[in-house]
Write a structure and sequence with these properties.
The protein is an alpha+beta fold. It contains two helices and nine strands, in the order E-E-E-E-E-E-H-E-E-E-H. It is globular and about 55 Å long.
């Protein structure tokens, strides 16, 4: 069951959404930049390209999961990281909800790329961020995320 409500507390109005039960799972994807290029990973089964990411494992924070997934999938080391936001995702026709965090990272290679431990990622690609729509098909949310990631990247690289 989902309940949307609004309440006042200490002079402020809060809007809240309550959902019965815990999210089925959680995940993270990171918009990683290396030398002004956006890092994408290629999935072997469907030739799908995404930012590096995956499930948050038991006991991990979303930051820990981002660092681990970037290392596993792209063999890159995180230099700087900031959370862009999160997306609550539901699959139509299923009674599941997943919170997926979106991160912005400055990275550098940590050796040659190898297959990730699960064998799902078979290649990486460094692209110009203006070409992201050729690879990432996340609609209006994807457009907003890349814009926020680019803004955050600029701030993170200016603060060197």
């Amino acid at each position: 069951m989902e309940i949307k409500s609004q309440y006042e507390h200490r002079g402020k109005i809060y809007k809240a959404t309550y959902v019965d039960g815990a999210p089925a799972s959680g995940g993270v994807h990171s918009y990683c930049f290396y030398n002004d290029k956006l890092v994408l990973v290629g999935h072997k089964n469907d030739n799908n390209w995404t930012p590096p990411g995956g499930a948050i494992e038991k006991g991990e924070t979303y930051e820990d999961a981002a660092i681990r997934e970037i290392k596993e999938e792209a063999n890159m080391r995180v230099i700087k990281m900031k959370c862009i936001g999160y997306v609550d995702v539901e699959v139509q026709g299923e009674d599941t909800r997943e919170r997926q965090y979106r991160m912005c990272c400055i990275v550098e290679p940590d050796g040659e790329f190898e297959l990730d431990p699960d064998g799902d990622i078979t290649k990486i690609k460094l692209i110009d961020s203006k070409d992201y729509k050729e690879y990432i098909k996340w609609g209006e949310i994807g457009d907003h995320l890349i814009q926020r990631a680019l803004e955050m990247k600029e701030k993170m690289t200016m603060n060197n």
